Amino acid sequence: MDKDRLPRWGWLLVGLFVASMGAQFVNAFVFAPAGLAEEYWVITVITAMAPVLIYLGIWYDDDRQHYWEYPRERIVGDLAFVLMGAAVGSALALVAIIDFDIPRLLREVVSMGVGFLFSWALFWWRNPDLYGVGPK
């Protein structure tokens, strides 16, 4: 894919849209028939969007291209940490506030923030060199 075809925010918008649509398909065809309450579907969307937010920056920034030279197993492990961090972080936040009389949009935004923070923190913990903090 040509990075110059769209600006960074354009790739982010496309990636988040595709991730959101994929998560909604999973919600509709897996979790809805399984009986999961609709309030929890946001966790799937957050989990699908987290890799887009993290990996788009790595793909787009020239100074972080060395990440792709890591072994495939490490990259897959990083992706697993990103997905688990987003799922666990957003689920913990949502479960903690779901019984309060908070509007649904605010609950989802808080869950999204915590899920993305957990996800990025786990990714950063495994790759501090990408952010100029660890050994290179």
Description of the structure:
It is a single chain. The protein starts with 7 loop residues before the first helix and ends in a 10-residue tail after the last helix. It contains four helices and no strands. It is mostly helical. Helix 2 (41-60) packs antiparallel against helix 3 and helix 2 (41-60) crosses helix 4. Helix content is 71%, strand content 0%.
List the defining traits of the structure above.
136 residues; mainly alpha; 4 helices; 71% helix
The tally of beta strands, per DSSP, is 0
Tell me roughly what share of residues is in helical segments. Answer: over 70%
Percentage of residues in strands: under 5%
Order of helices and strands: HHHH
Separation, N- and C-terminal Cα atoms: 27 Å
Structural class: mainly alpha
Enumerate how many helices there are, as a single number.
Answer: 4
Q: Stretches where pLDDT falls below 50 for ≥5 residues?
A: none
- Rg (CA only): 16 Å
Largest sheet descriptor: none
Mean pLDDT: 93
Describe how the helices and strands are arranged.
Layout (H helix, E strand, L loop, with lengths): L7 H27 L6 H20 L11 H26 L6 H23 L10
Helix pairs in contact: 1-2, 2-3, 2-4, 3-4
What's the gist of this structure?
The chain contains 4 helices and no strands. By secondary structure, it is mostly helical.
